[in-house]
Amino acid sequence: xxxxxxxxxxxxxxxxxxxxxxxxxxxxxxxxxxxxxxxxxxxxxxxxxxxxxxxxxxxxxxxxxxxxxxxxxxxxxxxxxxxxxxxxxxxxxxxxxxxxxxxxxxxxxxxxxxxxxxxxxxxxxxxxxxxxxxxxxxxxxxxxxxxxxxxxxxxxxxxxxxxxxxxxxxxxxxxx
Length: 176
Description:
- The protein is α+β, with helices and mostly antiparallel strands and 176 residues long.
- It has helices at 2-18, 33-76, 83-94, 123-127, 151-154, and strands spanning 104-109, 142-150, 166-174.
- The protein has one domain.
- The protein has 5 helices and 3 strands; from the N terminus they run αααβαβαβ.
């Protein structure tokens, strides 16, 4: 009698551990568990995936801004170049991946960096410098080519928490 009650307990404990009807092959039917797990994990996965893509795109735009400013400053340093040539070179470099209308480009006189007065240390300070027509620049006169764009204006998937983030670049050069 003792062996019989032990066998009943074992069979009851198997039923309790199974938690659901058995399918062919001895697998337990899981019902909607997979759907619920997918509904929880999929948005997190998509957010991480899109964030990685956005971060890469932002880095690409930052590199394009740097490259565009640097190339335009080199062109602007040569004799016979106008400010319009410099601005069009920046837009030409950026036009391959960014809408040039979304980018603000400045060509400013940076002689303040050669003087004893403290130079500007912020982007707004650089943009407040006087405008410069590159064709009229003196030899060895320093100028800056600066470009900036709001992140959400160029984002593949604009995100609310990125409001106010600005990508910017500048290049300093002396006129020849």
